[in-house]
């Protein structure tokens, strides 16, 4: 273990655990609400025949879940990345140290799988049912290439919104609300194309217990390429620099990133 690695782990382990727990809770929510909306024996499923209406309901639930996690004490402290592609994009932007990025990515994958396993223990056969299948994300009717383009575009859009919102002081506090709104919109509109992931850890967390590998490469490439492209577009077009890797910085919690946010203690 190198000195830098040891130092990062000793000083920042609470944030790593918060990221793992945050994505774990997100996955539990995804599994629970997918069962409620899509399981054949669910009253919601039997009462709502229109798939778009059901996706909209699921999107609302997951968007609110994301917002709750971003504005929770854990989210305010860790930055609420909850996604390795967000962390790696901020690493590329120079706002995250390499070892912090590495431990965040590990935390995301561990947290995602742990969340699905907890949900599986609670929901049992309901989560394993073919109509739910552990809330997996997989390519839709347009196939892997269509899913790739869809994941690329929604990831690009999310990162652009996060960067634009978080770096304008008067609206920065609303970044999490906009991110959650995009999650809700994407699930309602884009999910038929790719299942709406934007997150390789989220996809793998469901794929492992479901043993479903269709198009897995899409979710490990398109979200990262999309977010990196969004970041590059922001750097080329915006006159504002990227101040920090946190999605919410208007709080009193410490910041472990390469932060230039004025008035924020370390």
Structure write-up:
The protein is built from twelve helices and no strands. The longest helix is centred in the N-terminal third of the chain and has 36 residues, at 3-38. Helix content is 68%, strand content 0%.
CATH superfamily: Glycerol uptake facilitator protein
Q: What top-tier CATH class fits best?
A: Mainly Alpha
Give the overall shape: globular
Query: SS-based structural class?
Result: mainly alpha
The average pLDDT score comes to 95
Measured between the Cα atoms of the first and last residue, the distance is 25 Å
Report the C-alpha radius of gyration, rounded: 18 Å
Order of helices and strands: HHHHHHHHHHHH
Total separate domains: 1
CATH level 3 topology: Glycerol uptake facilitator protein
- List low-confidence stretches: none
List how many beta strands DSSP finds.
0
Approximate strand percentage: under 5%
Q: How many helix segments?
A: 12
CATH architect. name = Up-down Bundle
Describe the main β-sheet briefly: none
From the structure provided, what is the oligomeric state, counting identical versus distinct chains? Answer: single chain
Estimated helix fraction:
55-70%
Q: How are the secondary structure elements laid out?
A:
Layout: H1 3-38, H2 43-47, H3 51-70, H4 73-78, H5 84-92, H6 98-123, H7 125-128, H8 143-166, H9 175-189, H10 191-194, H11 200-210, H12 216-237
Please outline what is shown here.
Helices cover 68% and strands 0% of the residues. By secondary structure, it is mostly helical.
């Amino acid at each position: 273990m190198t000195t830098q690695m040891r130092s990062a782990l000793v000083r920042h382990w609470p944030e790593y655990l918060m990221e793992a727990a945050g994505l774990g809770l997100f996955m539990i929510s995804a599994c629970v609400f997918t069962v409620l909306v899509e399981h054949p024996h669910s009253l919601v499923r039997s009462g709502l025949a229109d798939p778009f209406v059901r996706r909209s309901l699921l999107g609302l639930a997951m968007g609110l879940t994301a917002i709750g996690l971003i504005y929770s004490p854990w989210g305010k402290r860790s930055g609420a990345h909850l996604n390795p592609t967000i962390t790696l994009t901020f690493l590329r932007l120079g706002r995250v140290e390499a070892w912090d990025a590495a431990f965040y990515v590990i935390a995301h994958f561990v947290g995602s799988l742990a969340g699905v396993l907890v949900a599986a223990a609670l929901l049992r056969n309901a989560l394993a049912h073919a109509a739910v299948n552990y809330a997996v994300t997989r390519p839709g009717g347009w196939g892997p290439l269509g899913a790739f383009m869809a994941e690329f575009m929604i990831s690009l859009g999310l990162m652009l919104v996060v960067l634009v919102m978080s770096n304008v002081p008067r609206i920065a506090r609303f970044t999490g609300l906009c991110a959650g709104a995009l999650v809700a919109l994407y699930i309602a509109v884009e999910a038929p194309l790719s299942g709406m992931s934007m997150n390789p850890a989220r996809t793998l967390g469901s794929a492992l217990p479901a043993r479903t590998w269709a198009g897995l490469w899409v979710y490990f490439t398109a979200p990262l390429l999309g977010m990196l492209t969004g970041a590059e577009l922001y750097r080329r077009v915006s006159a504002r620099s990227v101040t920090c890797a946190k999605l919410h910085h208007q709080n009193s919690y410490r910041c472990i990133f390469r932060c230039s946010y004025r008035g924020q203690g370390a």
